[in-house]
Design goal:
Blueprint (H helix, E strand, L loop, with lengths): L1 H7 L3 E3 L2 E5 H8 L3 H10 L10 E4 L1 H7 L13 E5 H10 L3 H74 L20
Antiparallel strand pairs: 1-2, 2-4, 3-4
Helix pairs in contact: 1-6, 2-3, 5-6
Length: 189
């Protein structure tokens, strides 16, 4: 089962398809990547169409995992093989290791598909319930906050009205007494 998990960890989703990169497949098949690519190019008619294989830009690879060459960047675009593209590789690579590896890879794709689909429905329903609960809590919080805002607004309006009334009732013609210890010169008489 460890081998199956190892292979599953090398399955990525790019452009909406589950794929494996040529360099990962070369390691599994125990061949050099350039040999695998050479065999694919010699038999390119078996891999026509994006549903079998497509070239991947270095940016797409970097989004999945960190891959660099010894000089700091990838030298060539990698091939990304879909599940049926990997099964087609078994007809191109005719070694005992390739046959065994291909069987393991096919099992990994099937297990990956089952893993992705079975718990998905239960997870979806659980997430949907959690989202509805959060939505209800947020609505309650916003309603409470709206009540507080209306109450605060009413209190501020009352304070504003009271200050306006106080200012209107203040006699403007009477001079104010200065604050402090110095007597004004007018009062000395």
């Amino acid at each position: 089962m460890d081998e199956l998990e190892n292979i599953q960890s090398k399955i990525y989703v790019i452009r909406g398809q589950r794929v494996m990169f040529d360099f990962d497949l070369a390691k599994i098949y125990q061949v050099e990547t350039k040999y695998l690519k050479r065999q694919v190019r010699r038999n390119i008619e078996r891999f026509e169409g994006d549903d079998f294989m497509f070239e991947v830009s270095p940016d797409e690879i970097l989004r999945c995992q960190k891959v660099t060459s010894s000089w700091g960047g990838s030298r060539y675009d990698a091939f990304a093989f879909t599940e049926i593209g990997v099964s087609m590789l078994s007809s191109v690579l005719n070694s005992k290791v390739a046959i065994q590896a291909n069987r393991s890879i096919m099992r990994a794709f099937v297990a990956y598909r089952n893993l992705a689909e079975l718990p998905l429905a239960a997870t979806y329903l659980d997430l949907r319930k959690q989202i509805e609960d959060i939505r209800q809590e947020m609505n309650d919080i916003l309603a409470d906050q709206n009540d507080i805002n209306e109450s605060t607004r009413a209190q501020l309006d009352a304070i504003s009205t009271a200050l306006a009334e106080l200012q209107a009732n203040r006699p403007d013609n009477k001079p104010r007494r200065p604050i402090g210890f110095i007597k004004p010169k007018d009062d000395e008489d």
